[in-house]
Amino acid sequence: MNGGVDRTPSGRVDACVVGAGPAGALVAAELASAGYDVVVLDAGPRFDPADREARMERHLRPGDREPVWDMGGERDAYSATGAREYPLNAARVKGVGGSTLHWQGMVMRLHEQDFRLDSELGVATDWPLSYDDLRPYYAAAEEELSVAGASDNPFAPPRETPHPLPAFPPSYSDSLFAEACEELGIATHSVPNARNSEPTDEGGACVGYGTCKPVCPSGAKYDATRHVARAEADGARVVDRAPVQRLVHDDAGDRVTAAVYATPDGTEHRQEAREFVVAAGGVETPRLLLLSKSERYPDGLANSSGLVGRYFTDHLFAGVGGTLDEPTRQKHVGFNTTESHQFYDRSDGARGAIKLEFLNYAGPAPADVATGAETFGDDLLAEIRGAYGNRIAVGGLVEQYPRAENRVRLDPSRTDAHGNPVPDVVWSLDRRTRATIERANEIQRSILEEMGTDVDWTVGPENTGPAFHHMGTTRMGTDPDESVVAPTLRTHDLANLSVVGSSAFVTGGAMNPTLTIAALALKASDHVAERL
């Protein structure tokens, strides 16, 4: 017992899932509903939903910049020794619910071309799956996440049914963008969002707090605690504050036998299972496999290819913004309601996918304007009004092709709270990605200039940052020498070890990855169930 919570291991169970984020929670819920005995181990705590308003206040209060989800310290130490700094802790959560506790909630399917870049364009690598292979799982994932959308995107891949919930209406600033885009011949469409546009069994409709990232106080935005609760209702056991230190295998090196995890008092335990599913994200998943090296696997578990941790990929942000001589009503909602995929697919190898986003949260919030102000009362109000309310911006995600030199490895010179080497993120930008960011900026600037915007900032190749979509570090493929997991998401090297999440992505396109994460998790669940 640790603090009144029983964190001792269960007997040998059917499945042990490492990580209670969106991928792990979905796998646990699927397997538990099918009657299997499931244990989920998560490195972080359970967060009380009643604390979410206080976490929102922590985010909004001037001068208070404590991490909203308690990230930092020795537990979360990391290195970033690549050519470009990677601020890993700026946008991750360790805890039950994982990254969906703080995400923005936009959920798009990858395009058909994303799965066949090599065969169609002669660039990057094809997935071992086609869009059609994943299409039924995409539909199921949209149902599981209660996705709201209008199904009106002319550039999106074919779908079988409308989105489960109606789309959110366009924002006021979307109407300002619409006229300029029409003049420029740029098609716009709605954004599918994993948040309730109307009440569901899981929760009420969005009420517009506007702080979706990093916290939704109302619970209208999907987070993985929904599936954690569903898994527990079907008999799964979820153990928090139980970071897995390593996975151990049998004498033959064919099967994982136990997950060794630590509890808050420092005690180590062994959870045995018939099947193991690692769903710890694109950084901690390869780190765990590398920490699990043995005499049989001296370079890390499931790493006979040498690719565990390789091909670390992210999306890059590109944006242009400024002010208009009229109100734009920013920050009434904390998520995007209009976008454009017009500049995504190409018919030649010059492709660098761009997803344009028409932002609803441009410029500083009133609290940010007030921070450090030397005026008070009516003067302060006038200052806030002068700096807030007429901002406008176009953002976007830009594709980065996987490169082997971008990687997650262990840094033996630094250790975490348990004495393990921390992850070292080695990351850089290539010329293709830089050129794609420049192209995005040109498009964005043309829209704002058409609107008569006084442009005063640009995020381009030199000052871009990551979207914190950690992809590619245990890539999928059919050749064990060129990949870590098979199309079933099971590792090539071990018969009962699966890896789910964005680490299995072969390429990342320019789409937010969570819907594809969910689709792959549902697919993996089917394959694990087949083996049980």
UniProtKB/TrEMBL annotation:
Gene3D superfamilies: FAD/NAD(P)-binding domain. Keywords: FAD, Flavoprotein, Oxidoreductase. PROSITE patterns: 4FE4S_FER_2, MIP. It comes from the Archaea. InterPro entries: 4Fe4S_Fe-S-bd (IPR017896), FAD/NAD-bd_sf (IPR036188), GMC_OxRdtase_N (IPR000172), GMC_OxRtase_C (IPR007867), MIP_CS (IPR022357), P2Ox-like (IPR051473). Belongs to the GMC oxidoreductase family. PANTHER family: PYRANOSE 2-OXIDASE. This is FAD dependent oxidoreductase.
